[in-house]
Amino acid sequence: MFIHEIENWTSFRWNADSLSDAIARTNRAIGYLTGRLSTIGFDSQMAATVEAVTHDVVSSSEIEGITLNTEEVRSSVARKLGVTVPDTKEPTHYVDGVVEMMLDAVMNYDTPLNHDRLFGWHAALFPTGKSGFSDIVVGRYRDESMDVVSGTFGRERVHYRAPEPERVLDEMNKFFLWFNDNKDCSIISEVCNSSSVVCMHSSV
Which residues pair with 160 in a beta bridge? Predict the structure, then answer.
């Protein structure tokens, strides 16, 4: 049985008390970093922001098995934030799309999430309508089944089977209602609000 096959599977609960220490440690670390940033001057703050976003973009892509050119990412981030960095390298359209999506997610974390915004991120990630050599449908939800599989041909192992395509729209609507509801995400919001301080220098 997969998680989405459990009745009321999105009704997650957690013990806030058990998370309080971890959140407090995170907030202290963010406060320390913010204090350090405030002493190094505006230009250095912006350079640090460029490096932090560049690291996030490159590391996030590696999770998907995609290796991005760090210099291209840094150049794209710097240009979009209006920062001058040495040894710039012209980024590809794909890198620009990934950076645009990441900056929107980080800088506008408190903007409600909806279908159009998500589809915009999707289009930014795949401006050519291709993933590698495969054609993909951009800007809408999938209309076919999706499995996470490993193993050689004939000996495949299914690790996860996603909800059937006819369920996706309804499940996404439920997700947006949860994600945009601050009352249900008070703990997450507390960390996000604190974490955003580090990146807010780029919005000055």
Answer: 148
